[in-house]
Amino acid sequence: MPLSRKLKNLISLRHPSCQPTDSPLGPEPSCEGQPLQTIDGPALTALKLKASPALVDGGENYGIKVLHDCGNDSCVDIVFVHGLTGNAYNTWLDKETGIHWPSKLLGQDIPDSRVLSFGYDADVFNIWNRGPASNSRLSNHAESLVGKLVRERERSDTETRKIIFVAHSLGGLVTEQALTHSKNSAEKYLNQIERYTIGIVFLGVPHCGSDLEAWATIGRRMVSVLVQTNKDIVDVLNPDSEMLHIVENNFHTILRQRKDDPIEITCFYEELPVKGIGEIVPQRSAKIAGYKLYGIHANHMVMFDAFTG
To answer: Where would you tag: which of 13, 21, 32, 253 has the fewest CB atoms within 10 A of its CB?
Structure first.
């Protein structure tokens, strides 16, 4: 199932007042007061798109960036969270067409939405700390996601708007930990992120639970990708499997507690191996029992490109 269709179905199901378009690229948006720009490319040269108020580009892009916003007409926040070695721009960029789907197409496909990205320092030397989970960089990134998203929603007076997360690779674990942090926070204003989350799309996210061997295998293969893509990285990535198990366990507790107001979950897995390495997150590790699972005919590093074609 194409990701945009899944998002539209979820929005229509959980928020009937939203009216996403059925067109592959959507009608001309109703958002007013924003300049238009033209996408380059043989199939899209005539398609005019709104310029983003804070369009991401190459670089760090840390924090929350607004990629598309219809103001008061928006009925849902769609938040993109990248994974290890990625960033808020490159992870979601189709390298062949140069199209950054969240900022250039999704607003056309689902005009009644606000599209945001969360960027963070995914440095492999620091992403995991061998201390307790509360001191790990993973937890720090999760807390940053919650805090910065809350501030953006307070700034725009949208604290009760529904939220859908789209997370790639280990960005899914950051998202899971963010929901745990939001739910368990003593600061009531931070609880809104978990409370108003209605759906999560996981793209190649490992869900291994207590399977330590599976975590170790995924860790070794990610190291191989890092060495392959960045020759300066020579250290070995050593995930603290106990900490990752805690993250997964806490997330499943939230899912069970939300049975009367469920979070809709859809998982995607890679169908192709990374050359010379193999599958990074195989099908059995990308699934969550009881939730929908779809394959993407791409490898782990470029699986998002399938949604821009």
So the answer is: 32
CA distances in angstroms from 179 to 21, 45, 146, 170, 301, listed in the order given: 29, 40, 8, 15, 25
What is the Cα–Cα distance from 89 to 107, expressed in whole angstroms? 16
pLDDT digits over 167-204, tens only?
A: 998 889 899 999 999 999 999 999 999 999 999 999 99
Contacts 24+ apart (CB under 8 A), 24-33: 24/109, 25/105, 25/108, 25/109, 26/108, 26/109, 26/110, 26/111, 27/111, 29/70, 29/107, 29/108, 29/111, 30/70, 30/73, 30/111, 31/69, 31/70, 31/71, 31/73, 31/111
**pLDDT by residue (tens digit) across 65-123?**
999 998 888 999 999 999 876 778 878 887 778 888 888 888 888 888 999 999 987 65
User: How many Å apart are CA 56 and CA 88, to the nearest integer?
Assistant: 7
